[in-house]
Amino acid sequence: MQTILAKASQLPYCSSLIQQGELVAFPTETVYGLGADATNDLACQKIYTVKRRPQDNPFIIHLANQNMLKEAAKEVPETAKELFKRFSPGPLTVVLPKTSLICSTATAGLSSVGIRIPASPLAQQFLSLCQRPIAGPSANRSGRPSPTNASMVYNELNGSIAAIIDGGSASIGLESTVVSCLQGKTVLLRAGSVSYEEIAEALNGEKVIYNQTETPNSPVLSPGQKYRHYQPDLPLLLTEELPWPQLLERFESQKIVLLTLTVPPDNLPERWQVYYFKTLADYAAQLYRIFTEAGNQNAQTIIAQTPQPGGLGLALKDRLQRAASGIIDWSANESYE
Ligand code: TXA
Ligand code: MG
Fold first, then answer.
1. Which residues have CB atoms below 5 A from the ion given as ligand 2?
2. Separation of 142 CA from ligand 2 center, angstroms?
3. Does 213 have pLDDT greater than 70?
4. Overall pTM surpassing 0.90 (yes/no)
5. How far is the CA of 60 from the centre of ligand 1 (A)?
6. Residues of the chain with pLDDT > 90: what percent?
7. Residue 89: is the preceding peptide bond cis (ω within 30°)?
8. Closest Cα to residue 46, out of 121, 5, 98, 106?
């Protein structure tokens, strides 16, 4: 199959591809999604095949606006209404009971559905033209970093999908915040740029559970959270501190890619590729692109500084931990993996 790289002027053609049951990757402000008609089992099945995604991991359903909520959600409790009012359109997904219009392949057989109204204007135009809910997991192969620009999608899925809508670089760069509002409880299933603190504040102090630590025996609330994710081609080592002399001593001879929130000294080896981020937002926006590019730069190891878990730091830390192969132990002689 030939994959076309589509511009804004080709959105009507791309929406007709969706209506014919084809897959079209589309930009959002978080990451690129791999779109299919969420009411069409066969179209949704193609997503599992192309992504090599486990069959038990449901897709997020994208809507153009809140008027379409009733097509996807059977009930919208007050907490969910408040969350949509405060954070949509935007980087938020809310899990609600599903309608029968959403096909069971899209939700992996679950009776609930994760709903998102993205803010990116191109995404909104595309969704409006499609005139139906659109299933859209991130447009990467399972386990790999999510794509934050059209060429990342192209390099991974060229030849297996009908089109990629080029909307430039995603401004946020991390996947949406996922909040479940089922059975009267509010559970943060995946941290994102709408922070835990903002959600708690919007709900006026109502209890918000953060379900990060699922154990093998606990019931799985969000199937995606049990899989390893976002992995770059190179080993990724994490550290909270950056003791520069020790870092130099241990990694001087290696070609490393370093992601830091601390101002680097000037005496670092030239062969090191150093990214210094002044803000967490900048770190998030560039993370997956750097993961992907590092694999092409003949580097041996990526070392990333983990942020404190407040605000966007919680989401960044979560993605880094899921992608990592180890944590550097500065008290030991060697790093372990
Ligand atoms: O920012 C995003 O959310 C991007 C863009 C394209 O919208 N999409 C995305 O989709 O990250 P995906 O499939 O890569 O991640 C969806 C996550 C998975 O962890 C999945 O298990 C969870 O949302 N999820 C989807 N439907 C669910 C449901 N009904 N109940 C619980 N978790 C659900
Ligand atoms: Mg994904």
1. 138
2. 7
3. no
4. yes
5. 5
6. 89
7. yes
8. 106
